[in-house]
């Protein structure tokens, strides 16, 4: 969880992730394997910027099959990954 270590000094919520330019959160449906990239600014407007990740995850629903069994993974652009690994 090296990526998350960068957030240790700040609470991890939608605002933190949206502020971190270049970060992307991907959502995977456990039922139909549909994958999409989350619209963090849009979610922050909808759920509030202080919404913690576990609450955001519970609010997600697959856009294809409607399942709420959604997993998320946090990743960055190659530039972000490189900066974190230096
Ligand atoms: Zn699905």
TrEMBL record:
**According to the entry, what is the taxonomic lineage of the organism?**
Bacteria, Pseudomonadati, Pseudomonadota, Alphaproteobacteria, Minwuiales
Q: Which organism is it from?
A: Minwuia thermotolerans
Q: Which domain of life is it from?
A: Bacteria
Please state what the protein is called: Uncharacterized protein
């Amino acid at each position: 969880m090296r990526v998350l270590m960068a957030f240790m000094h700040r609470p991890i919520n939608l605002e933190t992730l949206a502020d971190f330019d270049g970060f992307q959160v991907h959502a995977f449906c456990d039922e139909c394997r549909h994958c999409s990239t989350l619209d963090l600014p849009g979610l922050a407007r909808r759920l509030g910027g202080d919404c913690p990740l576990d609450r955001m995850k519970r609010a997600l629903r697959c856009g294809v099959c409607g399942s709420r069994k959604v997993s998320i993974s946090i990743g960055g652009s190659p530039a972000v990954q490189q900066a974190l690994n230096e």
